[in-house]
Each structure stands twice: as structure tokens, then as C-alpha cells.
Amino acid sequence: SELLARSFFACGISTVLQTTLGSRLPLVQIPSFEYLVPAMVLSSHLSLVSTCIVSLKNSIPGTAVASACPAPHCTMAGSWAASLREVSGAVLVSGLVQLVLGVSGVCGWAAQCCGPMVLAPSLSIIGLSAYKEAAFFCSTNWGVALLFMLLAVTFSQHLGSCRLPFCAWFQARGGAMETSVPTLRMFSVLLPLIAVCIICVVLCHLHVSWESLDLTTAQLSWANSTFHAPWLRIPYAGKWGWPLLTTRALAVGVAMAIGCSMNSVSCYVLCGRLLRAPQLPPHACNRGLCTEGLGSLLAGLLGTPGGTAASIANTCATGLTQAGSRFPVQVSALVCVVLGMSPRLAGLLTCIPLVVHGGVLCVTYAVAVGTGISYFQYADIDSGRNIFIVGFTMFMALLVPRWLSMVPAHLATGSWVTLDLLFLSLLMMPVFLTGFLSFFLENTVSG
Description:
Layout: H1 2-20, E1 29-30, H2 33-59, H3 72-104, H4 106-113, H5 116-128, H6 131-138, H7 142-158, E2 169-170, E3 177-178, H8 183-186, H9 190-205, H10 215-218, H11 222-227, H12 247-274, H13 282-302, E4 309-310, H14 312-321, H15 327-340, H16 343-348, H17 354-374, H18 384-406, H19 417-427, H20 430-444
């Protein structure tokens, strides 16, 4: 819960910076999937190296040394702390790289050069890349997940134009009071979430076995880590040691920065598209990436395993609710800062059932897929060239990470492990593959 609290604190600060000094879009900052994949690649490599070293030492006669702490958890805790420090170092590097990309103007230039043949497959694959996680979360109880989706679709689509007269809304620009607002649409994600959580609590109170968890998930001791966490603890840098900067952390950090920068640029475009706003100017994209870099620097110094990036789920939820104000986002940022200073309160959020997360992913990421498809109207989709570019980039973006996840050892240059980690981290991210291939083919294939 302390790691979660520190992550909340960094995300809250980054969200405040993003909405006031950055792109000024209503975007919540979170540790995105583009941080998780390289972090898992680095952690897997570190655990493999640690296992090989221990096995080698024990295999040499006379080198086996008794541990000062014979309990198995001592070795695991030390290995976990070392891995966390190196992953935090990678996050720190990613923040520096993002800051350089924003200050140099590369982000704004790239956003201007991306046409519909780049945006369409990129946004679509961002939505499709979360289908495994959504299916895993929903599999705990498909009935509850379908109930959440039914309520969200009903409130946002079928009853989206339903205006409740007893809900007034003050318009800041005109200074007038709007007598009725589409309340159900504005709360089309929050109301189903609350309703489903209440149903889950009632089922648990009645001792109804409604959640089917596998052995690994069931063994997660969320309750123990929450109940033993302090109510108040101000996060500060260096509590678990300073971030460890190695060549491996440098390679993984560069991969994190590239993937998260591409994700953030797509998120800026997606937010403007859903809110029917004008295209974001290049300097706003650069400022947004700079603020995300500062947030990642803070997250790395605090020792969290993930930086800060624009949330695709939050952006898609904004499209469903059509609530484009920055004020609710800034309020949520302050709430995140408060949660970051209270590990006990932050740990309580882990009590939210996985099926709720799955329902949210299904509803929100579907909007990203649909928005990407809508960009095809600006291109000649009947062209054989465009058909090939879209099909090839999306197919390879799903194929390559799938293959590498099954046989990661096949990617080896044979000379430098750092280069292997860089390539493996990049090729495991669908957003990088789609963006790179579509941008390359769009600008090199004539037609």
C-alpha cells in the first residue's frame, strides 16, 4: 500500500501540472501499460540473473556461504528491493528523456506529422491492446461485469440525452444557471461503478461466493498490507534507497520514454477528438510531455515502479460523459495527493473488485478503438496502399508482442544485454510497433 500511495502522490502532482501548465487538457496522469511492460522485462531479467548467480555460487565447491538470515523471505526481500531500485532508476531515466523530447520540440513536430493513416491504427491498437487484461478481470464474474457494461451503455447512450430538471449547473463563462443537465450521461461511469460495488458488498455480506479467483490472485494479501499501513506518512525520496542507474536501467528507461510519449501524443489527439476541440498546437504537446517528464522524475525519486502518463481510460470516460472541464480533474488530483500521504486510505482502494476494473476497461477502451476507426474517413480507405498499411501495422502490433511473451530468449543480439533489453521492451509494446510501422510506411510507400 505504501508503493500505491507514493504512486498516487506522484500522479496527483503530475495531474495538477498537466492541467495548469502542460497541455491544459482534462487528463488524469497514471502509470500506464507502457511503463509496466518494460518494468516487467527488466524485473524478469534481474530475477533470472540473480537465480543464475546463486546457482553458480552453490555449484562451486567451498563457495556456499550460510546466510545471516536463514528465512527464505530475507533473500526475496533483498532481491525485491534491488529490483525496485533499478526499475525506479529506469523511471527516472524515462522522465529525463521525456523532458528532453518536450523541450526540444520533437513531440510537437511528431504530432504535426501524424496523419489519419498513422492515428487510425495507433488509436485502434491502443484500445485493442488491453483486451487480455479486461478479459482476465471480467473472468472473475462475467455476470457482474456485464451488469456494469449494461448500466454504462444505458446511461451514456440510451439515456444520454435525458435531462433531469432538479439538477442545476452553473456555467462559469456565461455566469448563468442551466436549469437541467444530462446527469445520467455525465455520471455514466461513476453511477454504474457505485452500483456494482454496492452489489458486490451485499453479496459478500450474505456470504455468496460470486468471485472466482485463481490461486495466484487469491493469495494476494491485500488486507494484511492495508491494515498494517499507517494513516499518515509523507512520501519522501530515498526511503527505500535511491534509484539505481545502470546500463540496463538506461535502456529500459529509454524504451519507457518512447512508448509513453507515443501513448501521450495519442491521448492528446484522442481527447481533442472526443471533446470536438481544435487540434492541439505543437507547443501545447511539448508542454504536456514536459510536465509528464517532471511527474516521472518525481515518481522515480519516490521509488515507484512506474512513472506518469496520460490515462487512456480517463480520456475515453471523458468522451462518454462529455465532461470536458478541468476542475473535476484537478479535484481528483488533490484527492490523489491526499491518498498519497495516507497509505491506509490508498490501500483501501485495493478492495475494489477486479470485475469492476474489467468492466471499466471494456467500456472505456472500446471508445479508443472506435475513435481510431473514425479517422479512416479522412483517408482513401479504398486504396490498396492504405489497406495494406493499416492491416500490416495492426497485425504485427498484435503478433510480435504475443510471440516475444512466449519466447523472449529468441531476441538476443549476442553481444550486449542492454541492447537486448531495449529491443525487447520496445517490441513488447503494441503502441510503439503500430506508431513506428505506420509512420514509416506512410512516409516511404508512394501512393
